[in-house]
Known about the structure:
The chain is α/β, with parallel strands linked by helices. The chain folds into 2 domains: 4-41 and 290-392, Aspartate Aminotransferase, domain 1, CATH 3.90.1150.10; 47-288, Type I PLP-dependent aspartate aminotransferase-like (Major domain) (Aspartate Aminotransferase, domain 2). Helices cover 40% and strands 14% of the residues. The chain contains 15 helices and 12 strands. It has helices at 12-19, 47-53, 68-82, 88-91, 98-109, 130-137, 162-167, 186-198, 221-225, 238-241, 256-269, 275-286, 289-309, 331-342, 375-393, and strands at residues 32-33, 92-95, 120-125, 141-146, 168-174, 202-206, 232-237, 250-254, 323-327, 344-345, 347-348, 366-370. The protein has a 7-stranded mixed sheet with strand order 2-8-7-6-5-3-4, sandwiched between helices. Helix 3 (68-82) packs parallel to helix 12 and helix 13 (289-309) packs parallel to helix 15 (375-393). The longest helix has 21 residues, at 289-309. The chain is globular and about 60 Å long. The chain starts with 11 loop residues before the first helix and ends in a 12-residue tail after the last helix. Bound molecules: pyridoxal-5'-phosphate (PLP). Residues 37, 97-99, 102, 128, 174, 178, 206, 208, 237, 239, 245, 250 line the site of pyridoxal-5'-phosphate (PLP).
Amino acid sequence: MAYRLDGLPEYAFPRLHALLADVTPRANIAPINMSIGEPAHPIPDFVGDILARHVADYGRYPPNGGTPELLGAIGDWIARRYGVRLDTSRQILPLNGTREGLFNVALAVVPDTKAGQKPAVLMPNPFYQCYAAAALAAGADPIYVPAEAHQNFLPDFHGLDPALLARTALIYLCSPANPQGAVADRAYLLRLLALAREHQIMLAIDECYAEIYSQIPPTGGLEVAGPDAAGVLVFHSLSKRSSLPGLRSGFVAGDATAIDRFRQLKNYGGAPLPLPIQAASTATWRDEAHVIANRARYSAKFDLADRILAGRYSYIRPAGGFFLWLDVGDGAAACQHLWREAGVKGLPGQFLAQPDANGRNPGANYLRLALVADIEQVEDGLTRIIRCLDEKKGRPDAVPESGAA
Ligand SMILES: Cc1ncc(COP(=O)(O)O)c(C=O)c1O
């Protein structure tokens, strides 16, 4: 029997576990884990009090569509951040973090057939793994569109076969991108929106890293789509913005008809956010001070990376997000070597990408490193990595790699 999810690539972290199963760090080195993108900065100090004050509300079923207070706070945040005022009752739906929404969006908006054929769902390659699972679960073909260095790590959806675009129902874009940190600018988003509208494709823009940037706030999908947001859904989360990955709180906003389908799906099969979490989320979307402090912590770590990695391994300070995407030649071999010799765990880029038709994996040369630990650990980790990789190459003072920025 064939199952819908048979084509699913194996999840990255079990693969990492298997890759390192027989590799033990040398004695006397404290391990540093830079493989997982789990924020580790302090959580906002008001969250605990709010949860405690609302604890009795765990005794009530929460409203599926969110409390008016939460919807209002999200609507105000969108207006402050993107200058767009949405209809909070029709265009915003709270989510248990973006992942459930990014998965469910495909079930909500992908039709049985498009242009009389099996629908396709496009996504960048490398990509956040949930997009592929969502496409398969919705009965669509996941299509992996290269997003490589020579393209500034942004997929070229315009270059695709018009026949493919005709049967495409949904496009995922991640900006800032995990893993490369690339940001789609206004011109890119405008062109993409025009393409999507021409072919009646829903755009799902994963903006969960939107608040982690060095200098320029990344443009959002709603800024280019305008207040009616026809054909566009954006996904946001408190996980990265507010270092609250365990709160499980985010939202989807945009196209009212698509949100309606989404709400319907959530009414039947979803889990609404518990009321104490909705109350804590309301205050968290209304507060910017902790976000500014959080961003400054990441920025300080990227200043360090600028200093330690300058000109090496194609290091580019990413426009957004908190990952380094280093061209180390062979990401899997470097991952094993660094774990054994330096006690630092990264994630091979190949685990975040699909091989193309010729069997070439666009992530194969890369290692992804998450700058989530405290700054001392990050400095220690990066210093060990560079020393170890340079030694392996036999070039203690490695000269800049070709293609380095
Ligand atoms: C690109 C991307 N999208 C979505 C998520 C899901 O985040 P959450 O469900 O915590 O909002 C992650 C988490 O790592 C991510 O990297």
